[in-house]
Amino acid sequence: MTRLAHLRAHLRALALAVVLGTTAGAQRAPGVEIALPTATRLTAEGPLVKARGVLTDARMRELLASGFPARLAFRVELWSSEPWVDELHRTAEWEVDVRWRGVDQKYLVTQIVGGRSLSLGAFSRIEDAESAVERPLRVPMEAPRSRRRFYYQASLEVRTLSVSDLDEVNAWLRGELQPAVRGQRNPGTALSRGVRSLTTRLLGGERREYGARTATFRAPR
Q1: pLDDT band at 193, cuts 50/70/90?
Q2: Where do the domains of the chain lie?
Q3: 131-152: string of b/e by CB count within 10 Å (b at 16+)?
């Protein structure tokens, strides 16, 4: 192979790697997906919903490994498409909790529906926990037989800092900083330790939202 031919082959391989890398990155872009059942099943079963790539982000994985639990809150709505204002007909909500338990060296994945918890497994690798999180769920929300046109809308909120976490930070501030300010403790030590602790906690203050919707459809009568 001549030097020029070798260079061309190298450039083609490089271009292919860039394209494949871009495609893979696009496929793993975080979000939520929702898909309609087949046309003949529109009044027999609801849409298929799944998360996509929400634990792939390096920052999210770092937060999980640092002990910050992630809670994925799903919401699916059935709307009718009206001439002036669309009308909401039905809703469904559930959550998926992901947390690292250092004692067992496992990622615990739990689904919460209607206040009831269902374990989706305990995993040593974050990739396996992510696969459990991304299992598609068939939502029991069938479209009614009607002349109207409908569509489904899905939203996903990912949180890594809850209201109870903020309450703990406030309680810590009251208990840790006030004695130092009154001179009962070393202010420098308390403040430096407090800043580190508070910064670490607030780094987990992630809140991300994703959304998707189906095309409009008419359920067969």
Answers
A1: very low
A2: 30-160+206-221, 162-203
A3: ebbbeebebebbbeeeebbbbb
Task: Give the residue carrying structure tokens 């893979």.
Answer: 24
Summarize the confidence of residues 2-26 as an average pLDDT.
42
Q: 151: which strand partners?
A: 79
Q: State the Cα–Cα distance between residues 136 and 36, nearest whole angstrom.
A: 12
* pTM recorded for the entire structure: 0.70
**Hey, which residues does 113 pair with through a beta bridge?**
116
Give residues with Cβ within 8 angstroms of 14, minimum separation 6: none
Angle ∠(52,57,59) on CA atoms, nearest 5: 145
- pLDDT single digits (tens) 85-118: 999 999 999 999 999 988 889 999 999 998 899 9
Query: Which pairs from 216-219 meet CB under 8 Å and 24+ separation?
Result: 216/81, 216/149, 216/150, 216/151, 217/36, 217/39, 217/42, 217/143, 217/149, 217/150, 217/151, 218/146, 218/147, 218/148, 218/149, 218/150, 219/42, 219/43, 219/143, 219/144, 219/145, 219/146, 219/150
Q: Are 139 and 92 in contact (CB under 8 A)?
A: yes
